[in-house]
Write a structure and sequence with these properties.
This protein has 14 helices and 5 strands. With about 375 residues, it is mainly alpha-helical. The strands form 2 sheets. The protein has a 3-stranded antiparallel sheet, with helices on one face. Strands 4-5 form a two-stranded antiparallel ribbon. The longest helix is centred in the last third of the chain and has 34 residues, at about 250-285.
Length: about 375
């Protein structure tokens, strides 16, 4: 569908498009994503839990991902696309390869928060020794990302709050912090004129049809022209007018070309992935792995819901990709890798006595390295 949305009529365009299907950058990214999923499916996810102190690779990954996001804000280092500086070049700029560090942060934080909550589950209800550290990590990560990408920052914060709640934090503690997050979102919208204009255009897109209302209007026209049967593969009209037709607004092009049946098919595929991951979560007794799977489900599911809500004009316009569908090498590869880790949990033998296994009695045992393997409370995860 990325190739179909990117296909445009012109001199010799048909021949070049056929060639790009097999040798184009998107095809290479897709192959890399599949390889990443297969590789992730062979790793042992619980090793992240067993690694202690500074030998745990999560410490290095977390610092590296945050450092890369900070580098995008340095003039001359970040790559700007449509006025947003969210990318870094991988190697010399002549190669034309770039990646989005915020995508890396999004998935690394899932592992980091799961590790902290599984290690500190007995004190997660205490603010200073339990909740404060992961909360500061979320604040730093979202604070760096919100400058250029409000949607991803909101997604990371929402997933992080849900994981902390499942990991044993009290809901009233997070509720007390929520107003600070809402105030940050309001401040980010007010201080950015284009975000404020998008919010106004959401209420009445026709008040600025060639400006902030252009995206929602063209998106709605794509849905209307697709109807039930669609116009046919490669026959979209709105792809000549709708910006980001292969990325954030690919779903309307799919609906225009494949109709209502294509829209249902995409949604069914997404639901099958989420339902399968949820089934693995229910069958897994290792608490760290359960939290990791929960984070993957929330990140994947909320991102899909947010993208579809944006393109159907149910929420204000925000640039966020449809996972595994919208074009983007960083997003494809890292999302596929995260889903591969979920498959790895299902493939591994986590149904015996694990080091941090959830017992039938509802208690959690510490690992063998602790002084006394005494039963302790499980916190919020069940």
């Amino acid at each position: 569908m990325v190739h179909s949305a990117g296909f445009h009529l012109g001199a010799d365009s048909q021949r070049s498009t056929y060639v790009s299907i097999f040798t184009g950058r998107n095809t290479i990214y897709a192959m890399l994503a599949i390889c990443g999923m297969l590789i992730a499916g062979r790793i042992k996810v619980s090793q992240f839990y067993h690694s202690r102190s500074w030998f745990n690779p999560l410490f290095g990954l977390t610092l590296l991902s945050l450092g890369l996001v900070a580098m995008t804000l340095v003039p001359g280092l970040g790559r700007s696309v449509n006025g947003a500086t969210r990318w870094l070049y991988l190697g010399p700029r002549a190669w034309g390869l770039s990646f989005q560090p915020s995508e890396l942060v999004k998935w690394v934080l899932v592992l980091s928060i799961a590790w902290w909550c599984s290690r500190r589950h007995d004190v997660m209800h205490r603010f200073t020794v339990g909740l404060l550290t992961p909360l500061l990590l979320l604040i730093v990560a979202c604070g760096l990302i919100v400058i250029e990408d409000l949607g991803t920052a909101v997604l990371i914060a929402t997933v992080g709050f849900c994981m902390l709640l499942a990991g044993g934090a009290k809901w009233w503690q997070l509720a007390c912090i929520a107003p600070l997050g809402l105030a940050t979102i309001v401040a980010a919208i007010i201080q950015s004129p284009y975000r404020l204009s998008r919010l106004i255009a959401f209420v009445d897109p026709w008040s600025d049809p060639t400006g902030a209302g252009y995206h929602p209007i063209q998106s709605m026209m794509a849905f209307a022209q697709g109807g039930i049967k669609g116009l046919g593969l490669g026959m979209s009209i709105q792809k000549y007018y709708l910006p980001e037709d292969t990325t954030d607004f690919l779903f309307p092009i799919i609906c225009e070309e494949l109709g209502f049946a294509g829209a249902v098919l995409i949604v069914v595929f997404l639901i099958v992935i989420l339902w399968t991951a949820l089934s693995i979560l229910r069958n897994t007794r290792d608490v760290f792995c359960r939290l990791v799977i929960l984070g993957v489900i929330l990140t994947f599911g909320l991102q899909a819901v947010l993208n579809i809500a944006v393109v159907t004009v149910m929420v204000p316009t925000k640039g966020i990709a449809l996972p595994l569908i919208s074009a983007g090498g960083t997003g494809w590869i890292l999302t596929a890798f995260a889903l591969g880790m979920v498959a790895a949990v299902d493939n591994a033998d986590y149904y015996g006595l694990a080091d941090n296994e959830l017992q039938p009695s509802g208690q959690l045992f510490t690992d063998a390295g602790d002084a006394a393997c005494r039963p302790i409370a499980t916190g919020g995860i069940r």
